[in-house]
Amino acid sequence: MSSSAPYVPLPRWVDVGVLPAINLCMALIASGLIVLLVGENPLEAVRWLLIGAFGYEEALGYTLYYTTNFIFTGLAVAVAFHAGLFNIGGEGQAYIGGLGVGLAFLAFDSILPGWLLVPIGIVAAGLFGAGWAFIPAWLQAYRGSHIVITTIMFNFIASALMVYLLVNVLIMPGQMSPETRPFAEAALLPQMHEVLGWFGIETARSPLNLSLVLALLASVGVWAFLWRTPWGYELRAAGQNPRAAVYAGIRTRRLIVTTMCISGMLAGLVAVNEIMGVQHRLILNFTAGTGFAGIAVALMGRNHPVGIILASFLFGVLYQGGAELAFELPRISREMTTAIQGLIILFSGALAYMMRGTLERAWRWLALRFGGVAVPAEGEDHG
Amino acid sequence: MGDAFLAVLQVGDATLRVATPLIFCAMAGLLSERSGVIDISLEGKLLASAFAAGCIAAITGSAWLALMAGIAVSVSLAAIHAFACVTHRGNQVVSAVAINFMVSGLTVVLGNAWFRQGGQTPSLDATARFMPITLPLADTIRPVPVLGPIYAELISGHNLLVYVALAAVPLTWWVVNRTRFGLRLRAVGENPHAVDTAGISVTLLRYRAILIGGALVGIGGTYLAIAQNAAFGREMSAGQGYIALAAMIFGKWRPWQAMGACLMFGFLDAVTIRLQGYDIPGIGEIPVQFIQALPYVLTVVLLAGFIGTAMAPKAIGVPYVKER
Predict the structure, then answer these.
(1) Mean pLDDT lowest for which of A119-133, B29-43, B58-72, B142-156?
(2) ipTM at complex level
(3) Which chain A residue lies closest to B80 (C-alpha atoms)?
(4) Does B185 touch chain A (CB under 8 A)?
(5) Residue B116: which domain range?
(6) Which of B37, B292, B300 should we substitute to test contact with A (largest number of A Cβ atoms within 10 Å)?
(7) Domain count along chain B
């Protein structure tokens, strides 16, 4: 991702643990300053955030429901990142994934049984998401158009397309608001409190559904794919050095297309959580910025599934707690979460290596002072 | 005939009004990208400067102070962008996405906290805005056939910032193509190593390009909040920064062509409203969403190389690492 090559070997735990933690802290301190600026107490804000995310029975369910979305979009961005591609189109791919679910259910939910409908819905979400990513991918691979620009354009095109379809074509007849008819009960994903109820565990009602399991499976799948298969190896090799990859016999064009399709498929699965799990009908703007949040999640999670799950949970807390926060402290609006996301992207992404030099100097000093360890000679100054 | 002619002029008039912020953003993006730095943060800067201008105009009642505030805020964001991706060689897309997110959230949070109007700023009196200017002799010439109405309806009667936008295009062209700074700017976007070898600072050049761009977007944002409208409204930039980016690419990174694309996209927007519910013979009613998506579709088609070729500056998106 970043061009800043490591200059001095820092121990791995400093690079993977301490540096991201410092970056996150800087983002949170900046967020605290904004809270101060609007005239509230940052500590009070954190308290309400945590109460909102964990403080009552169904809160954790809501937090995990948001987490599910972010895992899908975070993975989507990360897979593309590993191949050196920047997929900003997660939002549009998730939206079109919803179209896939909607069309499949409108066509089949009255004639097929539930055990067939659920897999069909999941496959449709993935396929449509992948399809929406395929066009920019193909254009990048074979026509040389910049994937960042085309995926941005495709977000807008998806949005216009969905408004058109929902307002003019898919709308439930005799209804004002642009949404489809509700889907058959059998086509919906079981809610988590029902599933836990089967095992005798009583939990509060929340939008959390079985999609969370799908998200965790997807995380394992992405990990295995990237680090345990030859395709994943080729993908990462092409991301590290496209030219070398070509010489190594990797067909980079095909790789770009497959990678983006996988990425789009993961983003499309957001529709499984939202449409099959919660909304039970196709509505406008159900993605609500989830696709974009995936960028922040992937950056924070360092593009690794474990990091992405952790970052997704943090964002789940932020979204669910943010609603409570806006309710309790009227000077802070719901959009505070968007601003915090921005700050996290800035400090964990764009400025990810800003503190590295300082950290290196601190580490060298500590090592000399206390460790007596031989520290590699300092290279040229690279300020 | 007279009515149809007047309707055409009115569409032209509306086109110009819609295209103005696009032109500012496209020129800004052009400067930044010709220097080798991708600028997806046009949208964020546009929204932030609109907010700043709306706030300051509401508080001070001065359009000029508002303009300065709009420019200042946009330039500050541009400075953050430059700091992240020129000084720290961070990813240019990531940095821009961060800016867009921060602005999208902060404008609502701060607007709500300060004015308590659901993210809006208070509406402004005419004195706190840039109001339409009637150019000299507009009313005298009006009766002259054809030329009179064109002058009075289309050319006269815009606010100052529209004319500034129109002036920004030849100015950008002149700076990029006819000055020493422009020559170096183009060189640094194509081959920064050569520029560095010649003893010219790549960093300084890119900083200047990004900051000047920031100032231009600032004027565009101010236009949105206190010239085209009478207050800031949440998310009022509504993707115009991205449309401008598309226009700049459509114009193949050249000022006049980019302005042409801005006018074309502005025209599409202006006719959308008129075409609503109107059956075109042989085609039927064109869905609004189709026309709204058209700029993006056209840009993708262009980028795919189906309408000529769009060649981006060679070094675009690549942070410059000085050889050691």
Answers:
(1) B142-156
(2) 0.89
(3) A346
(4) no
(5) 13-303
(6) B300
(7) 1
